[in-house]
Amino acid sequence: MISVISSPAIWKLPDEITSYIMIIICGTNETQFAMPNPNREEAKHLSQVCRRFRRIAINTSAIWTHSTVQSGLTQDHGP
Fold first, then answer.
1. What distance, in Å, lies between the first and last C-alpha atoms of the chain?
2. Does residue 43 contact residue 23 with C-beta atoms inside 8 Å?
């Protein structure tokens, strides 16, 4: 007889907590663990784990939205 293994704790977490964990993993500016650019590759991988993770990832705009504005100008602070 095959024994039934209980579900891992990650499946019992509310979607909001799972979303926040995804934000931390991707290192977006929504957390104190922010990195300069969110890791979209991580976001893509998270969205491919299962249907639930895909739904949560797609609805977590912070892991997909990032814009950087850079100018070629240098700033001279004087003598």
1. 82
2. no
